[in-house]
Amino acid sequence: MEGRRSLEGQIAKRTNRAGKGLKIGGQCRERGRNGTFEWSIQSFLLKPLCSDPLSIHPRLFSCISTSVPLSVPDIILSFCLSLSLLLPPNLRGQSTSDYVVPNPIASVSVCASASACFFFFFFISILSSFQSDHLHLQAIMLSSRGCVGRIHVLGRAAARMAYSSSASPASSGLNFEFTPEQIALRDSVRKFVTDEIIPVAAQYDKTMEYPWPIIKKAHSLGFLNGVVPEKYGGVGLDAVSDVLICEEVAYGCSGMATAVTGNDLAETPVLIGGSEEIKKKFLGRMIEEPLVASYAVTEPCAGSDVAGIKMKCEKKGDEYILNGSKMWITNAGHANWFFVLARSDPDPKTPAGKAFTAFAVEGDSPGLTRGRKEINMGQRCSDTRGITFEDVRVPASHVVGAPGEGFKIAMKTFDKTRPIVAAVASGLAERCLDVATQYSLERKAFGTEIANFQGVAFMLAEMAMQIEMARYMTYKSAYWVDTGRPGSFFASIAKLFASDTANMAATNCVQVFGGAGFNTEYPAEKLMRDAKIFQIYEGTSQIQRVVIARQMLARLKEQGFY
Fold first, then answer.
1. Where is the Acyl-CoA oxidase/dehydrogenase middle domain (predicted)?
2. Is the distance from CB of 376 to CB of 317 less than 8 angstroms?
3. Which domain holds residue 69?
4. Cα–Cα distances in Å, from 494 out to 177, 303, 522?
5. Which residues are catalytic?
6. Which of 264, 267, 292 is nearest to 280 (CA)?
7. Please, which residues have CB within 8 angstroms of residue 326's CB and are 6 or more apart in sequence?
8. Helices 454-482 + 239-252 axis angle, to 10
9. Residue among 316, 397, 413, 315 nearest 360 (CA)
10. Which residue has the higher pLDDT, 208 or 72?
């Protein structure tokens, strides 16, 4: 049946004249004796219009409302729509085969009126084509963040819509809203970042000085040591609130965020396995004054392979003697104390879960030597050093957990801290999107802002999309921590995806800047240098894939699939 052919095919192939009749999509025949013409317009076109003219072509009206340019078939359809809108009211609901135009003069009048309507729709389509580029770009960016020199695009605008709404949760059970307390916390951190971090971040990157003034200010405002419970003097933030702080600080400078989050990494294993004595001694002091601590696990020959640690500990009386070295330790040059992992069982055949013991070691312990500050590619204000232990004596009371359980504690720590790394990576990615968007609206080429070019707009859209997904995974992994569920699977996914997103966003940011992105006078190159470390520390992106795969297979095995 011809009426079931494609809409565009019907109009393109069958709009013509036959004798004295007008043929639109179907047959038209002269009825002869009374000189009238019968229009047999296909039911797929006019019949819906008899009852609801707006049902003919939803795309036509969506194009007009959203300024999407109409295609040629759309314009032709608009003529048919205009024509159909002139049908007599008494014919609505009747079969189109019964619609008879009384005489040729009437048909000419109908066509003239329809043409006027057609040109209205045609004008709208032309106007929308001029507006489309700007409106498409506006769909992915541009709402003020209230900060001088920066704009607030989809990465954060969408977050406000999704998480800051006062609407009640949907009946589906999902709730994508922050609490009022979390919103207030985020806004206060955001102001701190705008006022204190962004103005000095580039200078700290050049001088590579440790940002003590920022650390002290953050401590005075309660932005450090969020994981420390109230019973030890802290505020006991939930994991979601903690990642909000880290994300905002990283927006200003990820190097400073790494310095800030280094405390969380050192404090978390103490919270997991430490005795009450250790918790009060080492965590309480972090609240009383602005101090930093370090997580010392990585060694020169043991990075991803934590089980390959060579540092030894030997028990003598009520003390342990530590010998060995650590490498790439964040905050090592300024740490008040260290969380340290050492091999307590010399037998190489002993499983990792029983071969290592963890300690809380005072930073001023005799025999502990801090190496020189490493000059890294990015995050240069963060302090990274090696540490040497030569007969360092540690009281047995400073063992974190039971002897031999250090490896398990260290791995459980990552389940809680990888969401923090994901948050820092997401914050940097959001900054990349903002500065790239701002530059694309200022830089002109070929007579217009480069944001109007599809090649640039697509990069911005890709960044916005990936950032939103990274943030959702970050919050979900933090939520998993708050609910006490096993979190390795989601923590690794969040860390992996956010790390890769940060590097993609940084690369696109430099590309949008072009030659300026390769110059130190612009922020893009710093963002690119800062981003790379996310794919390396706290488990490389390859290790995250190993963890994810193992978790998947273990789950399938539990369910009896193999």
1. 295-392
2. no
3. 2-134
4. 19, 20, 29
5. 538
6. 267
7. 296, 297, 298, 299, 311, 332, 340, 386, 387, 389
8. 150
9. 397
10. 208
Backbone angles phi, psi at 263, to 5 degrees: -65, -45
Query: Contact, 433 vs 505, CB < 8 A?
Result: yes
**What single-letter DSSP state applies at residue 196?**
I
Q: Are 248 and 187 in contact (CB under 8 A)?
A: no
Domain end point (choices 134, 161, 191) = 134
Where does a domain end: 92, 115, 134? 134
- CA-closest candidate to residue 182, choices 225, 240, 138, 142: 240
CB neighbour list of residue 230: distance below 8 Å, 6 or more residues apart? 236
Residue with tokens 């969401």: 419
> Which pTM was predicted?
0.72
CA distances from 230 to 267, 279, 427, 483 (A): 14, 12, 27, 18
Burial of 260 (0-12, 13-18, 19+ CB in 10 A): buried
Q: What are phi and psi of 383, to 5 degrees?
A: -95, 120
Domain CATH code at residue 441: 1.20.140.10
Asked whether residue 155 is assigned to any structural domain, the reply reads no
DSSP code for 143: B
Identity at 485, one-letter amino acid code: R
pLDDT band at 340 (very low <50, low <70, confident <90, very high): very high
Does pLDDT of 342 surpass 50? yes
Under DSSP, the state recorded for 374 is P
Question: What is the structure's pLDDT at 221?
Answer: 96
Residue 25 confidence (pLDDT) above 70 = no
- Give the side-chain half-sphere CA count within 13 A for 324: 23
Quick one: DSSP state of residue 169? P
Burial zone of 374 (CB within 10 Å; 0-12 exposed, 13-18 middle, 19+ buried): middle
CA distance 420 to 477: 9
In a domain, 503, yes or no: yes
Contact 243, 420 (CB under 8 A): yes
Phi/psi for 530 (5° steps) reads: -70, -30
Tell me, what's the pLDDT at 112? 58
Domain count of the chain? 2
Confidence of residue 456 (pLDDT cuts 50, 70, 90): very high
**In-domain check, residue 166:** no
SS3 state of residue 21? strand
**Helices 406-442, 239-252: inter-axial angle, 10-degree rounding:** 40
In angstroms, the CA 528 to CA 517 distance is: 9
**276/287 Cα distance (integer angstroms):** 16
Residue 334 lies in a domain: no
3-state DSSP helix/strand/coil % of the chain, to nearest 5:
55, 15, 30
